[in-house]
Design brief:
By secondary structure, the protein is α+β, with helices and mostly antiparallel strands. It contains 16 helices and 18 strands. The strands form 3 sheets. Strands 11, 12, 13, 14, 15, 16, 17 and 18 form an 8-stranded mixed beta sheet that branches. Strands 2-1-5-4-3 form a 5-stranded antiparallel beta sheet, with helices on both faces. α1 (5-76) packs antiparallel against α8 (276-303) and α13 (407-427) runs antiparallel to α14 (453-477).
Length: 571
């Protein structure tokens, strides 16, 4: 078999495309696998760090409780406080002042003293009233029933989250004379200390909202919404949360409160920090992949140069065709598939040119609506019965006018008149059925059904009157006599469809209603009617009462029809 350069070119092009595709697929799969492995490792490492952070948080709470317990123990032995309490009538103000001095020394902003019944006797916070110390009473009651020396927990105090501790005051042991209650706030400063130790974002949230956080306001709002929907109800749940600047690996840790809904401790670590080293490796891999693809692409371009130019020429020629240029032909001397494609495109251009020529002729000889129906349903004989409004318009005195004008001038004037009248009919949705010399037959409601065909026809007639007035003004400026028009309108059920022979047909309507419309147009010549537009009562009824100003003309007998027709002049 003789060697064919064209066959070799086609084979090399396909082979290069296959090799490039396999290379790209291999590099992409490798990159995705490495990226997935890096992400999995980062998630595992972040989760491990979050669980360590959770233990550090638990340890911080335990240390705070231990510190508060030791402080309360020291206070039970404080000589000044005992002197006040052992008095027959303890000075509550002095006791409150002593408690307030302890808040500054131990760093606990709330210190209170309760009697054995849990009633508040003195406190360091003037805003804390007896009814706002329910969590302290809860701990006192629980410690008393369990016969334990102290108790602790987390709850709301004055609407804010606190670590609470209660320690008994013995007078002497084992007789309890009262209880010391200490509280330390779980606030933004406490959350920030945990973050400084662990490098983890910390948020305390509940159904009440965010209690403390190290996040910005928008991000803390997102976390609060997640907690409100309940993701933290499952202890130790880890998930990915999308915040404003990054994706965060998030651990939801529920923390039980004293007799209330739990608060959720949300620990978060940015995924970007965990993936920093991995991203560097991925970037290197990406650079290597890009270099490999670039080299392979250059080789492919060098070997496929004989294909790219013809393809560009084909693409450019299709743009010419899309722009309506069906004359230009593509000269591509090739014996391969591209050459055959060029021949097919040239043949397509010829076919499109012939089709546009036929469509242009069709649009000029029939209305666009009729043309659309013929192209959609085909040119077959037959029709259907439907309600249509028929409009006949006739140019009065045309015979006299034709005697005074030369044929070219007469034809120019007639086309000028018909152009203005047709524009008004089409503007109101009418379809020109045919031109009968100087007369126009138009349809409203066929071939496209219209719910307001009668109103459209009446409005079109008024528009034709106004358009003729404008044309007469132009004729007067040219020194020519004015034109006059008569319009007859009728609404009736007729047969609409393609009428004619198998070789030649026309879309039109037939029926008694068509004859009535033509006769009404002829009645506009009656001087005593004093109107250019006459319509039937059927059309006015279809248009709706009061839609147009009319004047009744009575009932008349129409030629070719047995019954009388009630007619009206349109003002």
């Amino acid at each position: 078999m003789a060697f064919s350069p064209f066959r070799f070119r086609r084979f090399s092009t396909r082979l290069l495309a296959l090799v490039l595709g396999l290379l790209f697929a291999t590099l992409a799969v490798t990159y995705l696998l490495v990226s997935h492995a890096n992400l999995s490792n980062a998630l595992a490492h972040s989760e491990a760090n979050l669980r360590v952070g959770a233990r550090i948080y638990d340890d911080a709470i335990r240390r705070q409780i231990a510190y508060l317990t030791r402080t309360a123990g020291l206070m039970t032995g404080d000589y000044a406080i005992r002197q006040v309490l052992q008095a027959e009538h303890p000075d509550i103000r002095t006791l409150s002042s002593a408690l307030q001095s302890y808040t500054q020394r131990v760093g606990a902003p709330v210190i209170a003293f309760f009697d054995t019944e849990g009633q508040l006797l003195a406190n360091s916070d003037a805003e804390m009233e007896n009814e706002n110390v329910g969590p302290f009473r809860y701990l006192i009651d629980r410690a008393s029933k369990a016969d334990q020396p102290e108790d602790s927990g987390i709850s709301y105090l004055n609407g804010k989250l606190h670590v609470l501790v209660v320690v008994p005051l013995y007078a002497p042991y084992p007789n309890i004379a009262g209880w010391f209650g200490l509280a330390f706030p779980i606030d933004h400063a406490f959350a920030q200390k945990i973050k400084d130790t662990t490098g983890i974002e910390v948020t305390f949230a509940s159904r009440r909202g965010v209690q403390a956080t190290t996040l910005s306001a928008p991000d803390s709002g997102i976390v609060s919404q997640l907690v409100a929907r309940g993701p933290g109800q499952a202890g130790g749940q880890v998930s990915i949360v999308e915040l404003s600047d990054d994706r965060y690996v998030t651990l939801f840790k529920p923390e039980d409160l004293l007799g209330e809904d739990p608060v959720t401790v949300v620990l978060e670590r940015p995924l970007k920090a965990e993936l920093a080293a991995a991203h560097e490796l991925e970037q290197r891999l990406l650079y290597i992949s890009l270099v490999a693809l670039a080299v392979a692409t250059l080789l492919a371009l060098g070997l496929a140069r004989g294909v790219s130019d013809p393809v560009r020429r084909l693409a450019g020629h299709t743009k010419l065709i899309a722009g309506g240029d069906y004359v230009t032909r593509l000269q591509l001397d090739r014996a391969d598939e591209l050459g055959h494609l060029a021949d097919s495109i040239n043949a397509m251009s010829t076919g499109l040119a012939e089709r546009d020529q036929v469509r242009d002729l069709l649009d000029k000889n029939v209305s666009p609506e009729v043309a659309a129906q013929l192209m959609r349903d085909g040119a077959t004989l037959g029709g259907e019965e439907r309600e249509v409004t028929i409009l006949f318009a006739d140019l009065r005195g045309f015979t006299t006018l034709s005697e005074r004008l030369a044929p070219p001038e007469l034809l120019a004037l007639l086309n000028r008149y018909l152009d203005r009248m047709s524009a008004e009919i089409e503007r109101h949705g009418g379809v020109i059925d045919k031109f009968i010399g100087d007369a126009i037959m138009a349809l409203f409601g066929a071939p496209v059904a219209q719910g307001d065909s009668a109103g459209r026809a009446l409005a079109a007639a008024r528009g034709m009157e106004a358009a003729l007035a404008g044309l007469n003004a132009e004729l007067a400026a040219e020194g020519r006599p004015p034109l006059a028009i008569g319009v007859g309108i009728n609404t009736a059920r007729v047969v609409a469809g393609n009428i004619g022979s198998h070789r030649r047909l026309n879309y039109s309507v037939i029926g008694d209603g068509v004859n009535v419309a033509a006769r009404l147009q002829a009645l506009t010549r009656t001087p005593e009617y004093r109107t250019n537009i006459i319509t039937s009562a059927a059309t006015l009824a279809a248009a709706g009462p009061g839609a147009f100003a009319t004047r009744p003309l009575g009932a008349v007998n129409v030629k070719g029809r047995v019954g009388a027709v009630e007619i009206h002049a349109v003002e």
